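Entry:
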Amino acid sequence: MPKLGLDYPTKWGRSPGIRVVRNLIHSTFLVPYTRYLSPSRFAASRNSRRRTIHLRREPHEQYGYALVIAALPGAIRRRLVVAAAMDNFFMDSRRALRTVLVFNAIPIDRHKVNRRSAQIAFDLVQEDWNLLIYPEGGRTPDGELHEFKGGAAYLAERSMKTVIPMYIHESGWLQGPSTPRPPNSSRRPTSTAITLS
C-alpha cells in the first residue's frame, strides 16, 4: 500500500524528467486553458527573479493554483513548489500523484504547524525553490480575509526570504456548474495582484 498524507513521497516531482513533463503540461494545456477561461491581468515589478515565498489567498484552491501558475513568468513557474493541503490532496494515491505531477506539490498539515512538513518546505525554499502557500490554511468560503495560520509566517521568518502577497479576485465562478456563472459570458477577467518588495 502506498504511503499517503505527510508520508507521500514528493521528491520525484522535482526530478529533471518530471520537470520537463510538468513544463509541457503547463505550456501546452494548463496555462493556455486557464488564460482562455479567465483572461488575467498580471502586474509585477521586473525584479521578480529573486527566490521568494509566495503567500496568497483565493476562494477555490484547485483553480487558484492554475490562475497563479498562469500569471507567473515561466522562470518562476519552473521553480515553483505548491504547499497543498495534506487532507485534501494527499489522502488518495491517484489524486496525490496528479497533484505532484501537475503542481509539484508537497503535503502540508493545515490544521497545525507540523515540524516535518514545515521542514520540507523550509529546505525547498533554502534550495531556491519558490513556494506557493495559503497563509489561511486553505481556501476561504466567502473570499474574505481570515486569520492566518502560523506556518506561513514561521517559514517566512525562518528562511528570511522575500514574501510576495497575492490576491485573486472574481475567480469563484470557475468552480463549476453549481457556482453561478457571470451574466452573458463564459469568460470573465480575473485580476492577479502581486506586490514585490
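DSSP finds seven helices and seven strands in the chain.
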